[in-house]
Amino acid sequence: MINIHNLHKSFGDLHVLKGIDYEVREKEIICVIGPSGSGKSTFLRCINLLEEITDGEVVIDGVKVNDPKTDINAIRRNVGMVFQQFNLFPHMRVIDNITLAPIKIKNMKPKDAQKLAHELLEKVGLGDKANAYPEQLSGGQMQRVAIARALAMQPKVMLFDEPTSALDPEMVNEVLDVMKQLALEGMTMVVVTHEMGFAKEMGDRVLFMDQGVLVEDGTPSEVFDYPKHERTKSFLSKVL
Ligand code: ADP
Ligand code: MG
C-alpha cells in the first residue's frame, strides 16, 4: 500500500530524514515510536505531501506521490490524517467540519455527505453532536470528530500523529478504542504514538526512529521484549 524508498527530507541545512526505506502492506497497523525531534511527524507529513520531499520516493497504492504529474488532491483523498491538536475548523459545526472536504474535494452531493457524516459520527460514538461547535466538545470528542472527518474521504490509509498526546488521561481510551475498531475493520494505519500499550496490542509492526533514521523494525514483541539496538533499549528504558 505504501512504498517508501530512500526518503530524505531537509529543512534548509537541517537534514531531518536520512534515507528511509519502508513498506506498509494493506491492512497493516504500523506504530512509529521514537524520541521527540527524531522526525516522526516529518515522516508522516512526507507520506501525504504536507511536506515537500527532498529526495527519494513515496508510492501509495501504485501512485508516486512526489511526481509533478501526480494530483496532490488525489493523494490526500486516499490518505487521511489525524493530528495531535485535532485541527478542527472552530467556526464550523461538527457536521460541517466532516462534510466540507467530501463536498469540495470529492464533489459529493451535500445530502450524501451529510448522510455519511451522520453514519461516521455514530461510529465514533458522537451521534448526538452533529450540530455542536468544536469548543463545546471535550478533547476526546474533538479527536473523535477529527477521525470521523478523515474517514469521510473514504481513505485507503490513515495516518495518526500522536492522536492522544494532547488529551487528558481519562480521554485517551475513548480515542484508542475508535482506532482499535478501525484497525479491526481492516484499515491500513500508520500511527505515531507514545501509547506503548496500543502499539503492543494493535501493532503488526513497530518502527523505532531516532535522529531521522529507522533504527529498528519488528513485531511488537521483537522491538519491546528483544530490542537489538542500544538506542532502542535506551529509549524503551525511559518510556516503559
Ligand atoms: P518528531 O515528530 O519525532 O518529534 P519532527 O518531525 O516534528 O519530530 O521534527 C524533526 C526535526 O525537524 C526537528 O529538529 C524539528 O525542529 C525539525 N522541523 C520539523 N518541521 C520543521 C519545519 N517546518 N521547519 C524547520 N524545521 C522543522
Ligand atoms: Mg511529532
From TrEMBL:
One GO molecular-function entry: ATP binding
Sections of the chain in a coiled coil: none
Stretches assigned to the ABC transporter domain: 2-236
Family: Belongs to the ABC transporter superfamily.
Organism from which the protein derives: Paenisporosarcina cavernae
PROSITE patterns in the record: ABC_TRANSPORTER_1, ABC_TRANSPORTER_2
Keyword terms of this UniProt record: ATP-binding, Nucleotide-binding, Transport
Protein name: Amino acid ABC transporter ATP-binding protein
Name of a matching Pfam family: ABC_tran
Signal peptide: none
